[in-house]
Amino acid sequence: MNSKKKIPNATMKRLPLYYRFFKNSEKSGVDRVSSREISEALDIDSATIRRDFSYFGELGRKGYGYNVKSLLNFFMEHIQGNEVKNVAIIGAGNLGSALLNYKFSNINDRMNVVAAFDSNDEIVGTSINDTLVYHPDELEDMVSRHNIDVAILTLPAEVSQAMAERLVDAGIKGILNFTPIRLDVNDGIYVHNIDLSVELQALFFYMKHI
């Protein structure tokens, strides 16, 4: 990866789309693709794709395009990393259960959901899609025991900040936050916020102005 260039956030957000495209291309037996083919599949203009890739050096050749296997290996090594990331879902209610039933390996085979946590005694001790649901009292022990790196937070807003602090103290390095509040955590802990209400409002806005 070219460390001399600062990679824009917009480029970083497109990288998972590129990874999924190359992974699907490999599954389909495709050996090489052009920026035009990537553009048509992802609805991203070719110039943007070439600029995004330029941040990481020479990934393709003019007149040849991009080697699918090489690019897939690149994304796995330099963007995803070679280590498996263990993930916990905090809150196994409606949204948490839906996430537990989602096949994450379809988009990232370096992510392993190893535990879920919920205070509802009716589901503690049960399994959702082969993932055991633990009581929050066991959080710190399970984070340490399973080397959990990432937490997906799907709790009510009023308890999310306190849980985020517990997660950080337990050793979590990243949080995917589905709650409607902005979490206040230590520097060095990355929080990615997904507010479904904001995303829906943005969708309605774009629909209105098409």
From TrEMBL:
The keyword Metal-binding does not apply. Residues 81-182 form the CoA-binding domain. InterPro entries: CoA-bd, NAD(P)-bd_dom_sf, Rex_bacilli-type, Rex_DNA-bd_C_dom, Tscrpt_rep_Rex, WH-like_DNA-bd_sf, WH_DNA-bd_sf. GO terms for cellular component: cytoplasm. Its main location: cytoplasm. NAD(+) binds at G91, A92, G93, N94, L95, G96. Gene3D superfamilies: NAD(P)-binding Rossmann-like Domain, Winged helix-like DNA-binding domain superfamily/Winged helix DNA-binding domain. It holds the Pfam family Put_DNA-bind_N. It comes from the Bacteria. GO terms for molecular function: DNA binding; DNA-binding transcription factor activity. Homodimer. Belongs to the transcriptional regulatory Rex family. This is Redox-sensing transcriptional repressor Rex. It comes from Salinicoccus roseus.
